[in-house]
Amino acid sequence: MQTFEIQGNNNISRLLVGEKLTNLETYLPESRTVIITDTVVKRLYGDLFPQRADVITIGCGEKIKTLDTVRRIYEQLIALDMDRTGFIVGIGGGIVCDITGFAASTYMRGVRFGFVASTLLAQTDASVGGKNGVNFGGYKNMAGVFSQPDFVICDMTLLSSLAKRELLCGFAEIIKHALIADVDMFRYLKENYSQALALNPQVIEKLVADSIKIKAAVVSRDELEQGERRKLNFGHTIGHALEQTGRMPHGEAVSIGMAAATAFSAAKGFISSQDVIRIIDLITRYHLPVRSDISPEQLLAAMRKDKKRTGAKIHFVFLKRLGEALVEAITFDELKELASCKIWQK
Ligand SMILES: NC(=O)c1ccc[n+]([C@@H]2O[C@H](COP(=O)([O-])OP(=O)(O)OC[C@H]3O[C@@H](n4cnc5c(N)ncnc54)[C@H](O)[C@@H]3O)[C@@H](O)[C@H]2O)c1
Ligand SMILES: [Zn+2]
Q: What's the gap in Å between 236 CA and the centre of ligand 2?
């Protein structure tokens, strides 16, 4: 097992890579514990949950990441007589983690919480870093808080039941971390792609640990995303816009977003066309898409709704070189020009 830490504003968050769901009890305080999970995870792993905990089950899918689901969680917490001395654990993918973190941080002005991340995307990204929130009014993650979980357990054995498409979405975030911060990890991903896809225990644990190490380091330096943390949004400006169209899951949208941002980086003269080919090749090895049939106009319209824009400009993440990102505030006109480069269009 490898352990990493994030120094948050109010607490230290411990990230436990290779720990098991069956050991969850050892991380819990003696006080009352409530588990929040979704129907699929409960069906698959509910028998392994600590017996003494009460369980609140929510539905599945991005459509339930709403204030209404949070309201129903508050109602059940009240019905269970939960108070601020209790502890809440989210066991599930990114949706369970985002909702649990938000509900726990706001219920009675904040109850301590932790996660058992059960998807590759949640282990490498969603559960790490303390961003919690729900969608609102057609905008993704519009209402939320920065609040670090006390711990995150990343149990690799849970990944074997994941649908292939869900697994691949996690690899998109792993590739992102390599591209923005670690050229050795890029090489490792390329050389070991078949073992990674087959969930070879050593390979997958190393990739999750390397990913978390990168994200934890960035978040510790800039928890509230005023500077460096923006680099983690590589591929996400376009990715979120594609995701909004409702046609594909987060990881696939981010893959296309990364391919586009890579092409834009070359168009800006930052990276070579050789590197563009290497990156597209890596994304493709992981069976992830690099092109979309959405028009640049549709995409720009969606990007204008991005909450990360500041006035007429948007913080766009480029690759300065393989393993190093660079954030520039660019105008929508410049974005439009970049979006006309055809590489990412079907
Ligand atoms: N807070 C952040 O920093 C952050 C970062 C990245 C993504 N996110 C959010 O994460 C969400 C996506 O997360 P996700 O891809 O994990 O989605 P998800 O939580 O919907 O999980 C995907 C599906 O897999 C099922 N599942 C979960 N664990 C399983 C397992 N072990 N075996 C079989 N099935 C399992 C779930 O029930 C669900 O149907 C998005 O809402 C995204 O915005 C948040
Ligand atoms: Zn992401």
A: 7
Is 148's C-beta closer than 6 angstroms to any atom of ligand 1?
Answer: no
CATH 3.40.50.1970 domain span(s) along the chain: 2-161
The reply to whether the predicted model has a pTM over 0.70 is yes
CATH code of the domain occupying 2-161: 3.40.50.1970
- Which bound ligand lies closest to the C-alpha atom of 237? 2
Range(s) of the chain covered by CATH 1.20.1090.10: 164-344
Q: How many CB atoms lie within 10 A of CB 340?
A: 10
- Number of the ligand closest to the Cα of 36: 1
Confirm or reject CATH 1.20.1090.10 for domain 164-344, answering yes or no: yes
- Crossing angle for the helix pair 164-181 and 250-267, nearest 10 degrees? 30
Q: What is the pLDDT along the chain (346 residues), one digit of tens a residue?
A: 999 999 888 889 999 999 999 999 999 999 999 999 999 999 999 999 999 999 999 999 889 999 999 999 999 999 999 999 999 999 999 999 999 999 999 999 999 999 999 999 999 998 999 999 999 998 888 999 999 999 999 999 999 999 999 999 999 999 999 999 999 999 999 999 999 999 999 999 999 999 999 999 998 888 888 888 999 999 998 898 888 776 788 899 999 999 999 999 999 999 999 999 999 999 999 999 998 887 777 777 777 766 666 667 888 999 999 999 999 998 888 887 777 765 555 5
Ligand 1 pocket mutation pick from 98, 204, 252, 255 by most atoms within 8 angstroms of CB:
98
3-state secondary structure (DSSP) of residue 115:
strand
Which atom from ligand 1 is nearest to the alpha carbon of 144? 1
> Could you tell me the two tokens for 86?
């209790």
